[in-house]
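Protocol step 4 of 5: obtain the predicted structure for the target chain.
Materials: sequence only (see below). No template structures provided, no constraints applied. The aim of this step is simply to have a reference model before the mutagenesis design in step 5. Sequence pasted as it appears in the construct record:
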Amino acid sequence: MQVKYLIAKQESEIKESEQVVNEDDELEKEKNKIMLLQNEIENLKNIYETKINYLEEQVTTKENEIVGLKIKEKESLELKNHIFNLEKQLKEKEQTPQEKELLEGIDKIVKRFIMGPFGYASEVFDEEEIDEYYKEFETKDYSKYSPEIAQYGRFFSSQLRIFKSNVSIRKTTMRTIKELEDQKQHDQVKILKVDQLDEEKKEKIKECDNLAKQLNEVNNRVKLIGKAKLELEATLKREQKKLSEAKDMQIKELTVKYESQVKELENRVIDKDEELEKEKIKTRILQSELESNKVKITYLESQIKNRGKENVELKNQIGNLKKNIKEEKLKLQEKELLQRIDEIINKFITGPIDNAWEVYSEEEIGEYYKEFESKDYSQFSPEVALYGKFFLSQLRFFKYNLAMHKDIHKTKPYTVKVKNINKNFLNKRNDKFWSSFFFTLYISTYFKERNFYLIDKLNNVIVSDCFTKEKKGKLLETIKDENIFADIIKFLFRNGSDIIEDITEEDKRKVKEKILLVYGFYPHEK
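Step 4 output (structure tokens):
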């Protein structure tokens, strides 16, 4: 009975090995599919790489064209200076009414060009408007005018022709550049998708390798099972021979001792029947255990599926937590950057106003500059990154002026000439350096809400032509209300030794226009 049970067990294992072999065929099919996908991905990569190279070549050509346009703009500035000299010569001579009309028309166009943003005249004039001006000046009869004015008119019409062609070329080049940049971004997205497919391909290859290893293990098991089966068949044959020999001996003994052994044989038959019934009961118990095991397996499979869903949810929660941790780290880094800037500014403000080099040493400023130069501002928010870069530029400027100041004071001014040179240098330094660096430090502590874009605009206005040394005394008269801007002007222009009284209404109007550009409103007037 035990031999039959072992044979049945070996046959069931052989069937399982045959199922594994069928799975091996399916794996080979999947491998062939993966190879086809690899070839497709490589072809797509080659196509996109050729496209990207072609687009990059086009972008470089367009950039060269833009450089040529910038050179032409520089040449136009030189021509403007030439026009200005011609205008002076024309004003010195008497002009006819026709000549005055011609010059007034040219002045209107030139003033409109000058009032626009520098370097972006194509945004002020339309292509149709330039065409009308060109036709107007091209059709004029310059033989009626004096030779100088005729030369000026012909020169202006030629410049209109050049400007017309430059405007059309600039617009077409800007459009093509935008299209090429969009195409480049689109191709980069496709390349990222191809890289993702490569990663998926590698994962599938790993899975196939693992399945191949499992197949090898199963094949080894099948071979061992075959050997065991052969050994069992040999043992069965030996036992059958032994049983047949034993039966023959028993028959002989039964024929001799029939009467004495009949009862013993009957008892043995009864015992065998009982054993058979016991074995039947055992088989029923085993069948019930198999059914219960099948139920347990189905239950465990359902639990595995539920746990897989729970694992996906946990992964999502972990990803969200990681994002929150990164955001909190960035906020802490931004706070540390702002606190560090405030420490340097507070140390600067507590010291003497006109002797900043007594507060900071050159080595200390160098350490501050290296510290802020080594920071990665791309990880911060745009406002904080702008403030950090702006503070770094002011540290660079302060470091340069501090070194220059030390070099001047190393040599003693023995003569009057050297003393005058030192005084002139210090006055120039005060005009440029104090009006930019001290002003930004004062503003950054004055505004508690840290409006960094406003600080950048104010710094550009202060160093412009409206706030020159000759007119800073009269600026206090234009802004008399006690507001933020008046306090800033008082801080910057507190030394009234070089005030000049002759400031015109036109100068006041220009100052107010500059203030409007910065603040968005006019200052209060009494």
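Step 4 remarks: The radius of gyration is 48 Å. Residues 2-215 form one domain.
Proceed to step 5.
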